[in-house]
Amino acid sequence: MAVKKKKGANFFHALHTVFMPHKKNGRHPHILRYGAIIAVLAFVSVVEFAGVFQSLLLTHSTDQIGAVLPAVVVDLTNQQRSSNNLSALTPNTLLAEAAQNAANDMAANGYFAHVSPSGKTPWDWLNDVGYQYQYAGENLAVNFDDSQQLMDAWMNSASHKANILGQHFTQIGIGMATGTYQGQRVVFVVQFFASPRADPSVPQPTHITATKTQPRTIVSTPSVLGTSTPMSLAAKVSSSPHTYVDYTLLGLAAFFIVALIVNLIPFRGLLAHPKAFLNGFGILAILFAVILINQNVLFSKVFLPTDNQFAAVIFSIDGAR
User: Residue 147 burial by CB count (10 A; 0-12/13-18/19+): exposed, middle or buried?
Assistant: First the structure.
């Protein structure tokens, strides 16, 4: 009479066959066979297609740019502020309108700079919509199609980071527009920071500084730490396709590195077949090659203003406290 194996024993046997060498699998774990290479190639193809498709959707879908991405950038900005114990910035419709007007102007006229070819400054956009500011700052980016990479680029630039973490700012507005720059279809991003003027009768400040040196520091103690409604995983993935494609591929590479390490340890005196190692290293070569292609060829990179990557900042000169 045959003895029925327990479910736990069957599960362990299956894991052993898939991940570890033994006599019954010819010392060649299934996870490191040719079939695994084919499966990885198929999976990578699907992930790459999804990432490229979503990237194209972000740069060509006006509805998604206008309705989804500004909110995502605000959320990521407030996450950075929360991590640094700073108060969250409140979205302001006038700031958003000014930012959108500035983005539209760059898209329509094919330039990328804080000051337009006609001489219009960031603060002119604020004045046009009637926003009375005490302090204001502007971050720019172009070639955007991944929210997380955009935030990383700004945070890696000292002056842009200073705006994002500015203690004197209380409000934010984001504008995005698609256009052509240097012969390529791109998305222009304008991020305005400001704090409203307590006394609108006082004239607006008139001088501009590109933050080579910061004007006087305003020290404040936030009453409420920065908070942000957590984005769903779907929203994060859809707004940052490049980032999550790389996360997925790196996670898969880590999985196969662990599989190779496990098979380097003799189990019950058995070492994995040499072909298992060749296949494993082949899979890793494929994954890291695709990651390099994504970063240097396939997916675009965010660009910041070329003037030493300075962000634009203006401070009130009316003796504000």
Answer: buried
pLDDT in tens, 111-155: 998 999 999 999 999 999 999 999 999 999 988 778 888 899 899
- b vs e for 188-209, b when ≥16 Cβ sit within 10 Å of the residue's Cβ? bbbbbbbbbbeeeeeebbeebe
Structure tokens given for 170: 């209380």
pLDDT tens-digit series, residues 81-106: 999 999 999 999 999 999 999 999 99
Token representation of residue 312? 């634009």
User: What is the spatial distance between Cα 252 and Cα 298, in angstroms, rounded to a whole number?
Assistant: 20
Closest CA to 51 of 137, 148, 187, 119: 148
CB atoms within 10 A of CB 46: 10
d(CA 128, CA 98): 8
Tokens of residue 195, six digits: 């704090």
DSSP state string for 150-173: HHHHHHTSHHHHHHHT-TT--EEE
